[in-house]
Design brief:
The complex is a heterodimer of chains A (322) and B (247). Chain A is mainly α and 322 residues long. Chain A has one domain: ABC transporter involved in vitamin B12 uptake, BtuC. Chain A has a two-stranded antiparallel sheet. The two termini of chain A are 15 Å apart. In chain A, 46% of the residues are buried. Chain B is an alpha/beta fold. Chain B has 2 domains: 164 residues, P-loop containing nucleotide triphosphate hydrolases (Rossmann fold, 3-Layer(aba) Sandwich), CATH 3.40.50.300; 71 residues, no CATH class. Chain B has 10 helices and 10 strands. In chain B, helix 3 crosses helix 5 and helix 3 packs parallel to helix 6. The longest helix of chain B has 18 residues. The radius of gyration of chain B is 18 Å and the shape is globular. Classes of the chains: A mainly alpha (322), B alpha/beta (247). Chains A and B meet through helix 8 and helix 9 of A and helix 2, helix 3 and helix 4 of B.
C-alpha cells in the first residue's frame, strides 16, 4: 500500500515478465500449477476485498468458487460458450454474496465466521446431494476449454495465458475499485464502522457490496477452475479451500493490493518447491506459515513494509489491517 | 427564531435505569450550546439518542422542524448534522488528507458515480483548505495513526466539519488536548461558527473551555436538565454548584 512507488513498479514489471516467460521453460505440470496460481489469486483477490479491505470475515469463498465452477461445467458441457457461463456465474455469485452479507449487518468477527461456515457447508451438501443437477460425488468430467476469438486454449500454455489475461483484467478492475471512493469507504468500514456512519458512509450498503463483489470474483475464479482441471467434484469446494484462500489473503498481507498474489504463490507453489524434501515438505510448509503468523501477523507485505520503515513510525503498525 | 434542533421529552431507559429522563430543549441557529454535568449524568446517551446511534425509549427529535427520531446515523449526516465522539475516532491507516476526503465524499453524487466517476478533485481542494485551517499541513500525508493525540483530536474535529454541516454535536472536544492547542481549537471553532453560521452543541468537562466558548449552557444531572443559562448565570447557580461544581 505505501511501499515506495518505484520499488513497486520495478517489482510488478519483473513479475509480469517472469509470468509471461515462465511457461516456456516448464513441463505441463508446472504450467498447470502456474495456471492454478492465477485462478486462485482471483478468488483470493475477492476475499481480500471482503476481508482485507472491508473487514468482513468469510469462510464461504470456496462456495462461490464452487458455484462458478459448476455453472461453467454444467453449461459448457451442454455446448454453451464459456463467456456466457462466466456472466451468469458473476450475476449468480453477486446476488448470493449480497444475500450472505445480510448476517454481517448484525454479527461480526467469529460469529460472522460461523454464519459463513454454515453457508459453506450448505453449498457443499447441495453440490454433493443434489445429483439431478450436480451429478453428486461422481462429479462432472470432460469440461471443454474455451475458444476465445478463434484462439483455442486447449493446450496448457494457451489456457495459462487465458487465465493470466483474466487475472490481469480482474486486477485492473480491483485496482480501480480500491482507488475509488469505494475503496476508502471499505477501509473506513473495516477500521471504524461507527465513525464511518457518522460521516455519511452508508455502512450497510457498502458491507453488502463488499460481500457481493468479493463473491463475484470467487465465481470468476471457479469459471476458470472448471476448464483448468476439466473434472470437478464437490470435495474440491469444501471448507478446506475456504481456509486455504483465507491463508492466502493473510499470508500475503490482508488489506494490501498485492497480498493475494503473494499469498496464492506461497499456498500453491511453495509446497511444490519444497517437494525435494520428500516426506517433509508439508511439515516445512506448516512451520513456515506458523513462524510467519507468529512474528508478522500482517503477512509478507506487512513484513516488507516493516523492514522498510524507520522505527519512529513503527508503533502505528500495531493497529494495522486485521 | 425557529430552532435548528428541538428535543422533546426524550427518555432513554436501560433496564430500570433512566439514563435520560424527559429532556426537552431547543438549539437556535448560530448558537454554541454547552452541555455539562457530572459523569454518568446522561450527556453522551443524549447525544447518541439524538444522532440515531441509540433508539430513544420515548420522545421526539426535530431538525429544522423535521422529525428525525429513529433515522440512521449516516442519513442524519447527509442531512447536514456532524458529530465527534467522546473517544478519539479517526481512521488510523488512512492519511490525514484521506481521512478528510472520506469525511466529505459521501456528500457528493450517487454511490454509483463515486465508483465510475472521479469526484475527488473538489474534495482534495476542500481537504487541503481544512488542513490549512486546522494547521495540519506538516502531517497532511502521514497516517492518522502516527499523529500525536492532540493532532488526531484536531483531525477528528476537522472531519466533522468537512461536509459543511449546519449542526455539529461535539462530545468532549477538549479531552486530552494540551492548553496551547486547546486555545487554537477554541479559536477555530469560533471562526467556523461565525463564518459558516454553523450551530454547535458541545459536551465538555473542561469548565474554562465551556464557559469561554459557549453562548448558553445546559446542566444535566441524573438524566434531567437542572439548570439553563448564560455561562455567568450557571457559574452562580446554587443547584449546579451542589450537583456538579461542588464535587
Amino acid at each position: 500500500m505505501t511501499l515506495s512507488r518505484n520499488a513497486c513498479v520495478v517489482a510488478a514489471v519483473a513479475a509480469v515478465l517472469l509470468l509471461v516467460v515462465a511457461p516456456f521453460g516448464l513441463k505441463p505440470y508446472g504450467i498447470y500449477l502456474l495456471s492454478l496460481w492465477a485462478v486462485m489469486t482471483i478468488a483470493a483477490i475477492g476475499l481480500n476485498l471482503t476481508l482485507g479491505y472491508a473487514g468482513q470475515i468469510s469462510l464461504a469463498q470456496s462456495s462461490f468458487v464452487g458455484i462458478g465452477a459448476y455453472t461453467a461445467a454444467l453449461l459448457t458441457t451442454q455446448g454453451w460458450p464459456l463467456w456466457s457461463a462466466c456472466l451468469l456465474a458473476i450475476a449468480l455469485c453477486f446476488v448470493i454474496g449480497w444475500l450472505l452479507g445480510y448476517p454481517a449487518l448484525r454479527v461480526q468477527h467469529h460469529y460472522l465466521a460461523f454464519v459463513t461456515l454454515a453457508f459453506a457447508t450448505l453449498v457443499f451438501l447441495i453440490l454433493r446431494n443434489e445429483e439431478w443437477l450436480t451429478k453428486g460425488v461422481y462429479g462432472i468430467t470432460g469440461i471443454p476449454r474455451p475458444t476465445a476469438l478463434g484462439w483455442s486454449t486447449k493446450a496448457p500454455v494457451d489456457f495459462y495465458f487465458f487465465c493470466l489475461g483474466m487475472l490481469a483484467a480482474v486486477s485492473a478492475a480491483t485496482w480501480w475499485l480500491i482507488r475509488s471512493p469505494w475503496g476508502r469507504a471499505f477501509t473506513a468500514l473495516r477500521e471504524n464502522p461507527l465513525r464511518a456512519a457518522s460521516l455519511g458512509v452508508d455502512t450497510q450498503r457498502y458491507t453488502l457490496m463488499a460481500f457481493a463483489i468479493g463473491s463475484a470474483l470467487g465465481g470468476i475464479s471457479g469459471v476458470l477452475y472448471a476448464p483448468l482441471v476439466q473434472f470437478i467434484e464437490p470435495t474440491a469446494f469444501a471448507l478446506g479451500l475456504s481456509l486455504n484462500l483465507l491463508l492466502m489473503v493473510i499470508v500475503g498481507g490482508s488489506g494490501y493490493f498485492f497480498g493475494p498474489f503473494l499469498g496464492a504463490a506461497v499456498s500453491v507453489l511453495l509446497p511444490e518447491w519444497l517437494r525435494f524434501t520428500e516426506g517433509l515438505y508439508l511439515i516445512l510448509y506448516a512451520v513456515f506459515v506458523m513462524i510467519l503468523m507468529a512474528f508478522c501477523p500482517s503477512g509478507l507485505l506487512g513484513l516488507a513494509e516493516r523492514l522498510r520503515k524507520p522505527a519512529a513510525t513503527r508503533r502505528t503498525q500495531a493497529g494495522g489491517p486485521p | 427564531m425557529s430552532a435548528v434542533l428541538e428535543v422533546r421529552d426524550l427518555t432513554k431507559t436501560f433496564g430500570g435505569i433512566s439514563a435520560v429522563n424527559g429532556v426537552s430543549f431547543d438549539v437556535h441557529p448560530g448558537e454554541i450550546l454547552g452541555l455539562i454535568g457530572p459523569n454518568g449524568s446522561g450527556k453522551s446517551t443524549l447525544f447518541n439518542c439524538i444522532l440515531g446511534q441509540l433508539a430513544p425509549s420515548s420522545g421526539e427529535v426535530r431538525v429544522d422542524g423535521r422529525p428525525i427520531t429513529g433515522m440512521r446515523p449516516s442519513d442524519l449526516n447527509l442531512l447536514g448534522i456532524g458529530r465527534t465522539f467522546q473517544l478519539l475516532q479517526v481512521f488510523p491507516q488512512l492519511s490525514v488528507r484521506e481521512n478528510l476526503i472520506l469525511a466529505g465524499q459521501e456528500h457528493q453524487g450517487s454511490m454509483w458515480s463515486r465508483l465510475v466517476g472521479r469526484p475527488d478533485a473538489g474534495l482534495t481542494a476542500a481537504a487541503n483548505r481544512m488542513i490549512e485551517f486546522f494547521r495540519l499541513a506538516a502531517v497532511a500525508d502521514e497516517r492518522a495513526g502516527a499523529l500525536s493525540y492532540g493532532q488526531q483530536k484536531l483531525l477528528d474535529v476537522a472531519m466533522a466539519f468537512m461536509a459543511g454541516p449546519r449542526l455539529v454535536l461535539l462530545d468532549e472536544p477538549a479531552g486530552g488536548v494540551n492548553p496551547t492547542m486547546l486555545a487554537g481549537l477554541r479559536e477555530r471553532l469560533r471562526a467556523i461558527n461565525e463564518a459558516e453560521k454553523a450551530t454547535f452543541v458541545v459536551i465538555e468537562h473542561n469548565m474554562e473551555f465551556v464557559m469561554s466558548l459557549c453562548t448558553r449552557v445546559l446542566v444535566l444531572a441524573e438524566g434531567r436538565i437542572i439548570a439553563e443559562g448564560t455561562p455567568a448565570e450557571i457559574r452562580s447557580n446554587r443547584d449546579v454548584i451542589e450537583a456538579y461544581l461542588g464535587h
